[in-house]
Amino acid sequence: MTDALVLGGGLAGSGAAILLARAGRSVSLIERETGPHHNVCGEFLSIEARDHLEALGMDPVALGGSPIDRVELASGPRLVEAPLPFTALGLSRFRLDEALLERAAGAGVDIRRGIRVNAIEGERIRTSAGDVEGDTVLLATGKHRIRGERDEADGGEDPFVGFKMHFRLSPQARSALAGTIRLILFDGGYAGLQPVEDDRANLCLVIRKVRLGELGGSWDAVLSMLCALPYCGEWLRDAEPLMARPAAISNLPYGRMARPAADERMFLLGDRAGMTASLTGDGMALALRSAFVASRCVLQGGDVRDYTASYLQEVQGQIRRAMMLQHWQEYRLLRLGGVALLSACPAIVTRLARATRLRRWA
Ligand SMILES: Cc1cc2nc3c(=O)[nH]c(=O)nc-3n(C[C@H](O)[C@H](O)[C@H](O)COP(=O)(O)OP(=O)(O)OC[C@H]3O[C@@H](n4cnc5c(N)ncnc54)[C@H](O)[C@@H]3O)c2cc1C
Q1: Does 253 sit in the ligand 1 pocket, CB within 6 Å?
Q2: Residue 97 has pLDDT above 60, yes or no
Q3: Domain CATH code at residue 308
Q4: Is residue 7 in some structural domain?
Q5: Residue whose CA is at the smallest distance from ligand 1 atom 15
Q6: Which pLDDT score, from 0 to 100, does residue 100 have?
Q7: What is the mean pLDDT of residues 312-319?
Q8: How many angstroms does the Cα of residue 284 sit away from the middle of ligand 1?
Q9: Is 124 contained in some domain?
Q10: For burial by CB atoms within 10 Å, which of 116, 173, 260, 355 has the most?
Q11: Residue 264 sits in which domain range?
Q12: Tell me: the pLDDT tens digits for 107-156?
């Protein structure tokens, strides 16, 4: 039997697999996708996420990451601009996740692709290729629960739905967006537009399910709504979509945090352990942090309860602050008033960006 069985080959799963394999453990990783794939994500790599990737031996700049050191906040007729308190990178998940899996394979991890975890029934893990087992099991399958798994929360009565699309912008829009993440706040949701590698721009957004229904329920309707907004429409109207269809995800369980349960036998990693609001662009850092905390705990002989408690201690402050910001932007008057205030004092935007970071990993 393998020492560690990792379910899911996103950031959390690959990160943990690399760390455990490097420490001499035998590790198998199961990933449902057969090759590189798009994941709904703003693809904003914060400074903490960059730190973690570098500690895993990755070089996100060499992978083509596009530097981002400015944030713009657009709401209605206003646009606020401010420097970020760090340099982030825009790098697609298509490229990043694949590079991490390659690094895991290089570290000796047995990667099994094209296998789906179908159900977790007590000790039994049922996959599309039969039952699997490991001395230690780390569940890193992302936002949605696997059949049979205990869960703490779902996305509520009117959950957010997420979309992502890559575009080729016009040369003027591309040069205006260089080095910048533009956040566009609108009724029922928000979008982020930023450069990623190879002169592509990533548009990623979340929108409440009810609002999506009011718009007609389709990606085209969402795009038309965005094209009518100031500080967004003029760039998107003549942009060329670079994906056949957007990546999409429903029922986002924002704010979920795992509870340290005494009888839990699986290490829950990444979004399975806690999901922060996307507005602050730090979910990847949290996912990678879970890989570091879990692998340290496994290597020191700790149990799931120890791990969950120390992971939550690391991340719960960030999740709470990010959720507060996400709630604030949902109330129209608060949002418009807040952005008016921020335009009078853009330094607050920089402070907010700093205040919503995960503590750096020591
Ligand atoms: C709209 C949106 C925008 C975001 N923007 C940002 C951002 O700009 N910056 C940032 O830092 N974070 C952002 N995030 C958060 C970030 O994307 C996640 O926190 C991060 O991807 C979590 O990593 P993970 O490894 O837990 O899960 P994932 O990255 O989702 O990886 C899970 C892996 O498991 C595999 N898998 C799933 N189910 C199964 C199964 N049944 N069997 C086998 N394999 C399976 C999947 O194929 C995938 O490879 C955003 C999230 C959303 C929803």
Answers
A1: no
A2: yes
A3: 3.50.50.60
A4: yes
A5: 283
A6: 98
A7: 96
A8: 8
A9: yes
A10: 173
A11: 2-68+88-153+253-329
A12: 999 999 999 999 998 888 999 999 999 999 999 999 888 887 765 556 68
Rounded to the nearest integer, the mean pLDDT of the chain is 95
Q: Check residue 1 and give its pLDDT.
A: 87
Beta strands 247-252 and 160-168 are antiparallel
- Cβ–ligand 1 distance for 278 under 6 Å, the answer yes
Question: Is residue 348 one of the residues assigned to a domain?
Answer: no
How many Å apart are CA 126 and CA 137, to the nearest integer?
Answer: 13
- ipTM (interface pTM): 0.99
Domain count, the chain: 1
Measured between alpha carbons, how far is 316 from 256 in angstroms, rounded to an integer?
10
For 190-226, what is each residue's pLDDT tens digit? Answer: 999 999 999 999 999 999 999 999 999 999 999 999 9
Q: Mean of the pLDDT values across residues 248-275?
A: 89
Q: What is the pLDDT of residue 362?
A: 74
Atom of ligand 1 nearest to the CA of 97: 49
Residue 315 belongs to a domain: yes
Stretch 52-71: mean pLDDT? 98
Instruction: Give the per-residue SS3 of the chain.
Output: CEEEEEECCCHHHHHHHHHHHHCCCCEEEEECCCCCCCCCCCCEECHHHHHHHHHCCCCCCCCCCEEEEEEEEEECCEEEEEEEEEEEEECCHHHHHHHHHHHHHHCCCEEEECCCEEEEECCEEEECCEEECEEEEEECCCCCCCECCCCCCCCCCCCEEEEEEEEECCHHHHHHHCCEEEEEEECCEEEEEEECHHHCEEEEEEEEHHHHHHHCCCHHHHHHHHHCCCCCHHHHCCCEECCCCCEEEEEECCCCECCCCCCCCEEECHHHCECCCHHHCCHHHHHHHHHHHHHHHHHCCCCHHHHHHHHHHHHHHHHHHHHHHHHHCCCHHHHHHHHHHHHHCCHHHHHHHHHCCCCCCC
Is 43 touching ligand 1 by the criterion CB < 6 Å? yes
Q: Is the pLDDT of residue 160 over 90?
A: yes
Whether the CB of 154 sits within 6 Å of ligand 1: no
| Residue 240 one-letter amino acid | E
CB of 40 sitting under 6 A from ligand 1:
yes
